[in-house]
Amino acid sequence: VNFDSHTSDVVSAAVGAINLLTPGYALGRKYRAEVSAGELALALRPQRAQRVVEVSGSDVEELRDYAVRLRKVFTAVEAGSVDNACERLNAILRETQAVPVLSRHDGEPWHLHFHAPDAGWATSWAASMATALAVVLGSPVHDRLGICTALACDRVYVDTSRNGTRRFCSTSCQNRVKAAAFRARQRVT
Ligand SMILES: [Zn+2]
User: In the predicted model, is pLDDT for residue 149 greater than 80?
Assistant: First the structure.
């Protein structure tokens, strides 16, 4: 599944932000979601890490509130309630005043942003993430938003595989589950 490259980048950023900013379980361990502004900025823009703008602690907390709400969109899809997921996303789109704006800056060609030009850092990111997830939810592959099925992991992912058979947040969780199944078989024989 291929969305346009900007959408794919922002979908990845949304997954990264949700997984960093929301507590729960990750890769078999309790996860407290204590994250620094620098780590968050790096996760959002890995290809431009060296040019990251100054992000404050309050920016992190503001984006965390949105990340918690975006996670609920994944939870709703996982529970089979696309209606609920779409209503949740629409609310975030409204609140963040997500609106397409063509923009040109930093020597880049004209490209489409999805937030008001004067929006703050967290609001801008939330508007963009909500828009990118809305593109997924409004497409035939709307059920590709998932939550890891491995034991003690609740990290989210977007399944871009051809068959849509992904079940884990990472190869790390996939390998954990395989290893556990292998050990279980060994005990039986
Ligand atoms: Zn996982």
Answer: yes
pLDDT tops 90 at residue 27: yes
- 112 CA to centre of ligand 1 in angstroms: 32
Query: Is the pLDDT confidence value at 62 over 70?
Result: yes
The candidate with the shortest Cα–Cα distance to 132, out of 160, 165, 103, is: 160
The mean pLDDT of the chain is: 90
- The answer to whether the beta carbons of residues 18 and 72 sit under 8 Å apart is no
Quote the ligand 1 centre to 180 CA distance (angstroms): 14
Q: Which of 66, 7, 17 is nearest to 37 (CA)?
A: 17
Ligand 1 centroid to Cα of residue 15, in Å, is 12
Centroid of ligand 1 to alpha carbon of 93 (angstroms): 28
The rounded radius of gyration (Å) of the Cα atoms in the chain is: 18
Roughly what angle, to the nearest 10 degrees, separates helices 37-44 and 57-78? 50
Q: Greater confidence, 154 or 187?
A: 154
Q: Are the CB atoms for 27 and 173 separated by under 8 Å?
A: yes
2 CA from centroid of ligand 1 (Å): 23
Name residue 42's amino acid.
Answer: L
